[in-house]
Amino acid sequence: MTDLKEKLANVSSAPGAYLMKDDAGKVIYVGKARNLKKRLASYFKSPDQLDMKTGVLVRQIVAFDTIITGTENEALILESNLIRRYRPRYNVILKDDKRYPSLRLDVQNPWPAISVVRKIENDGALYFGPFTSSRSVRQTLNFINKTFKLRKCKTKVLTKRDRPCLNCQMDGCLGPCCRKVDRAVYDGIVREVILFLKGRTPELIQEIETEMAAAAAVQAFEKAAELRDKMFGLKKILEKQVAISKDLKDRDVLALARSARHVVITRMAVRGGYLIDSRHFTFPPTLSTDAGILDAFIRQYYEKSRFIPPEILIPAEAEDAELLEGFLKTLKGKKVSLLQPRRGEKAHLLKMAVQNAGDRLRSLTESAETGIERLSRLQKRLRMQRFPERIECFDNSNISGTSPVAGMVVFENGAPKKSAYRKYKIRTVEEHDDYAYMAEVLTRRLGKGAQSEPYPDLLMVDGGKGQLGIALSVIRELGLEGAFEVAGIAKKDEKAGETEDKIYQPGRANPVIWGRDGDLLLFLQQIRDEAHRFAITFHRSRRRKNALTSEMDTIPGIGRQRKKALLKHFGSIRKIRAATLEELGAVPGISLKMAEAIRNTLRP
Fold it and tell me: Which residues belong to any copy of the UvrC family homology region profile domain (predicted)?
């Protein structure tokens, strides 16, 4: 601490960002400050003057670095970049939204089409979402396809067709690929889709009613009936949305709830006065204050968002409200207000969001408590020395020894931790041998010394007594006896009259008897089934990749374009194999040296 205080004496009073490091040199916290010297000094006071959360952080700080910026706004941007780069454990880090589906409308295309994507890119297209579930995005897409006559073909460039497709014949598409379609009409449909996806459904309904009345006035009854059906469909959707704001403005409402285990932020999206979406974001416990968490969330979320409303309601005053509003204004190009309402309609919206966040937190807490209680019973039933917080399960997958692979899944506190899943290609076993496959995979997982940590509390192998014996053999060879518990799971033998799967443990001849704890067996079966799914999915992808690999992919110097030219010239690999050097050399782009390589590879 003395060294840190000496270094603090030389810190500049300029604005900038700072990085706190632990004894391993790892960045554990990143912050920003208008005055670096003053902010850092606040961390190194007497321990009695620090709150509990800051004290926990300070006790781990061994060193710090500072980066000076020209303005406080530049410090804000630098802090965000450093958090993304180092992902410090004591900062609030918003997970990437790429796993959530969004709808993409390529307005730069002459004939825009709508599609579902999971990654938002800066390509000039309009993105709507992300949606909270695949089901909700499919329902929205189905409604758009049914109501608006955009083209349904997935090709980026519209290709001409001689005859209309089935969608066009069913009057679900105008058919610009094979019919003469007025661009103004198509652009009008695109505009309607954008209004609908932006939550402007009442405005869209009003426009369609006006257009329907005009069509009826000139006795265009067929068009009027079509517009009527579209209007009824939109009104049915509107009935499911809740009108919660009389001023019909766009705004987001943020609320926060936290416990010792979880931090929840709820975002409610209000568009045109209607609540169109509500979504929860969950984070691990953090040392930041409520205001600091909201500050970090707002910066990280809206930096990626395609739409920033003019108002954001928040339950606590932001740490740097003026600076944050300037940051949002830079992103949006217009003023954005952060409001903390105390009364009226906006305060009611905020109260609603707070209730939703609290409900989500209670659900997470109850689920966690249920999971801990279940794991405690599992520990008792299996007579384990340690609490099974981390469970790893291994499974092999192959077909008659072809493309053998294995998968490892990880459950922590009773829930899957997919970031810790691992795939293994079998490298050293030439013949079909499931036991040898398991031995190789376990050796690779556990045999790296300190790099293999963390070890599981319970290691489970799919395959029963045989695979359990292999696991114990590997553990003995690596000197890891007693480091964790081991179990094998075997499928029930229906021919022998067995009614449930079996769990085997070292030193026990018979499988575990579950009695009233049958739910624990179901839990272990769930982990085994997840390992099987993960391994077989990887195996299928390998087989598919191998099936698409051609003999020609192994020829040195022959890439995709030359391979395409050879196949186009000769028609098949059989004819390429039978060709002379002169015939091969006659293909554009194929030199004599390449022709020799082709012949030597295909005709060894």
Answer: 253-475
Say what the pLDDT of residue 133 is: 66
CA dist., res. 442 & res. 463, Å (int): 14
pLDDT of res. 401:
65
The superfamily in CATH containing domain 390-546 is UvrC, RNAse H endonuclease domain (3.30.420.340)
Closest CA to 234 of 215, 213, 207, 272: 207
- Buried-state track 433-450, b at ≥16 Cβ within 10 A, e below 16: ebebbbbbbbebbbeeee
Domain 551-602 annotated CATH 1.10.150.20: yes
Residue type, 220: A
pLDDT given for residue 240 in this prediction: 54
CATH architecture of the domain covering 2-86: 3-Layer(aba) Sandwich (3.40)
Helix (H, G, I), strand (E, B) or coil at 311: strand
Q: How far does Cα 283 stand from its chain's mean position? A: 14
User: In b/e form, how buried is each residue of 6-31, taking b as 16+ CB within 10 angstroms?
Assistant: eebeebeebbbbbbbbbeeeebbbbb
CATH code reported for the domain at 251-362? 3.30.420.10
State which amino acid sits at residue 86: Y
Ramachandran angles phi, psi of 520, nearest 5°: -70, -40
Q: The tokens of 130 are what?
A: 């992300």
Give burial (CB, 10 Å; 0-12/13-18/19+) of 204: buried
Distances (CA, A) of 93 to 64, 301, 321: 20, 10, 20
Single out the residue of 462, 506, 504 nearest to residue 480, CA to CA.
506
Of 309, 206, 208, nearest in space to 253 by CA? 309
* pLDDT at 546 (0 to 100): 67
Which residue from 57, 76, 61, 48 is spatially nearest to 4, judged by alpha carbons?
A: 61
The 3-class secondary structure across 112-127, one letter per residue, is: CCEEEECCCCCCCCEE
Instruction: Give the separation between CA 471 and CA 355, rounded to whole angstroms.
Output: 49
Residue 170 token pair? 């069913």
Instruction: For residues 182 and 165, give the distance between their C-alpha atoms in angstroms, rounded to a whole number.
Output: 19
Q: Measured between alpha carbons, how far is 178 from 372 in angstroms, rounded to an integer?
A: 62
Predicted model pTM? 0.62
One fold for 390-546 and 551-602: no
What are the structural domain ranges in the chain? 2-86, 98-243, 251-362, 390-546, 551-602
- 29-64 pLDDT tens trace: 888 888 898 888 888 777 676 776 677 778 888 888
Euclidean distance between the first and the last CA atom of the chain, given in angstroms as a whole number: 71
In the chain, which stretches have pLDDT less than 70?
Answer: 1-2, 47, 49, 52-53, 95-100, 129-130, 132-133, 236-246, 400-401, 546-552, 603-604
Name beta bridge partners: 18: 31, 66
Residue 54 dihedral angles phi and psi, to the nearest 5°: -65, -35
